[in-house]
């Protein structure tokens, strides 16, 4: 009986310790981060179109999409868990090999996104807002160039 209890405790400890390495199943982590990136894309679409003059500049629409983008701006990175470098993913191995540089690009993007919301809140001019949308788009591309296949 005592041995069995010990075995159960050992088993539980093992489960917990494995759990701390990576709580999520790698495939769930990949689905999760790709899902958040789809939210990025959903919001960048109209913003980019406004910046490029493909649709008329609309302050309310810009505020909505910039706000939504900024609310999820820090969410994808936690999905790049250990072991989720393999599978149905376009992430390059460099994300895990050079995590510091990846985190830096993520921080650059978050900053650009926060600045966009700030400009819109301050009721900055249309030109400055459009230029900052361009900066956000550039921060997406800059990370994709180095870390996305
Ligand atoms: C710090 C790096 C980084 C930044 C910043 C970044 N991305 Fe990505 N993005 C990635 C990586 C890595 C992948 C591949 C994820 C995967 O397949 O596991 C990806 C994938 C995507 C995908 C494909 C998702 C799917 O369904 O497979 C879209 C769309 C996307 N990003 C849009 C954006 C947009 C829009 C921005 C800016 C608003 C952005 N990303 C900013 C790194 C980044």
Automatic annotation (TrEMBL):
GO terms for biological process, alphabetical: electron transport chain
Gene Ontology cellular-component terms listed: periplasmic space
SUPFAM superfamilies cross-referenced by the UniProt entry: Cytochromes
Residues annotated as binding heme c: 140, 143-144
Signal peptide per UniProt: 1-23
Keywords annotated in UniProt: Electron transport, Heme, Iron, Metal-binding, Signal, Transport
Gene Ontology MF: a single term: iron ion binding
Posttranslational mods: Binds 1 heme group per subunit.
Record has Electron transport as a keyword: yes
Protein name, entry field: Cytochrome c class II
Organism this protein belongs to: Ectothiorhodospira haloalkaliphila
Lineage: Bacteria, Pseudomonadati, Pseudomonadota, Gammaproteobacteria, Chromatiales
């Amino acid at each position: 009986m005592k041995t069995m209890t010990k075995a159960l405790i050992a088993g539980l400890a093992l489960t917990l310790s494995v759990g701390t390495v990576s709580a999520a199943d790698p495939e769930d982590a990949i689905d999760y981060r790709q899902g958040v990136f789809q939210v990025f894309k959903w919001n960048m679409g109209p913003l980019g179109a406004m910046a490029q003059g493909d649709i008329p500049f609309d302050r309310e629409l810009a505020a909505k999409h910039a706000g939504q983008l900024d609310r999820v701006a820090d969410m994808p990175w936690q999905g790049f868990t250990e072991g989720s470098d393999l599978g149905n993913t376009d992430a390059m191995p460099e994300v895990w090999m050079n995590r510091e540089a990846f985190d830096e690009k993520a921080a650059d993007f978050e900053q650009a996104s926060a600045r966009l919301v700030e400009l819109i809140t301050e009721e900055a001019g249309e030109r400055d807002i459009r230029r900052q949308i361009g900066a956000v788009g550039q921060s997406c591309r800059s990370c994709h160039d180095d870390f996305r296949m």
